[in-house]
Specification:
single chain, 172 residues, mainly alpha, two-stranded antiparallel sheet, 8 helices
């Protein structure tokens, strides 16, 4: 019984474990692909637990369906939070700045910080990552949308912000 109640947390554990293993054994893989792989593995684990629930618990079909639906929604919400937790640590300048200050024995001057956070270099690195992941393409000295998967994900996030916050951004 507790297995079914805790199945979204078990699925999240599978997600994290599979993502870690994916990153360890596929060094060339992007963090985004590892995250999607882990989420898919967790979802598969959740579905297996749900199938076992259908096989072993003699409840009404609607009760089983409701339980599986709640677990699925819970896992998707946990996966969403985990994705943004990873994204925060990977891309946030505040986190990166704090890490660099921690690693610096003598601290950093404002000039040293500004040198490390050169806007041109930051844009070049982001463009390089987007090109490498084929999210954008470079043709005739201009950039265009390549693989629109992140654009789709961004659209979902904007929709959720509109739905939850009533606006496109928390800063509006």
């Amino acid at each position: 019984m507790y297995l079914y109640i805790c199945s979204p947390l078990i699925a999240l554990g599978i997600d994290v474990l599979c993502q870690v293993l994916y990153c360890r054994y596929r060094k060339e893989a992007s963090l985004l692909m590892a995250t999607f792989f882990g989420f898919s593995c967790g979802l598969f684990g959740l579905l297996i637990i749900g199938w076992c629930q259908l096989q072993h618990i003699a409840l009404l079909f609607t009760d089983n369906l409701a339980s599986i639906t709640v677990n699925l929604i819970s896992y998707i919400a946990l996966g969403y939070c985990y994705f943004h937790f990873i994204n925060l640590g990977e891309t946030a300048r505040r986190i990166r700045l704090l890490q660099e200050l921690l690693e610096s024995n003598n601290g950093l001057s404002e000039k040293e910080i500004l040198e490390r956070y050169n806007a041109k270099e930051i844009i070049e690195k982001r463009l390089s990552r987007l090109l490498k992941s084929r999210q954008i393409i470079h043709k005739n000295r201009k950039y265009y949308i390549g693989n629109p998967i992140m654009l789709f994900a961004a659209s979902i996030i904007i929709f959720l912000k509109l739905f939850i916050l009533g606006r496109r951004s928390e800063f509006d």
